[in-house]
Amino acid sequence: MTDDPRRRIPRTDILLADPRLSEAHRMFGADAVKQAVRDAQQRARAGQLNPDDVLPAALAALPAAPTLLRRVINATGVVLHTNLGRAPLSAAAVEAVTAAAGYVDIEYDVATGTRARRGRTALAALRAAVPDAGDVHVVNNGAAAIVLVATALAARREIVVARSEMVEIGDGFRLHELLTSTGARLREVGATNRVHLRDYADAVGAQTGFILKVHPSNFRIEGFTSTVGVTELAGLPVPVVADIGSGLLRPEPLLPDEPDAATWLREGATVVTASGDKLLGGPQAGLLFGGRTVIETLRRHPLARALRVDKLTLAALEATLRRPVTPTASALHADERGLRERAGKLAARLVASGIMATVTPSDGVVGGGSAPGLRLPGWAVRLSPGLAEPLRHGVPCVVGRIHDGYFLLDLRCVPPVEDNAVAEAVERACS
Ligand SMILES: *Cc1c(COP(=O)(O)O)cnc(C)c1O
Question: Which residues carry this modification: N6-(pyridoxal phosphate)lysine (predicted)?
Answer without folding.
Answer: 278
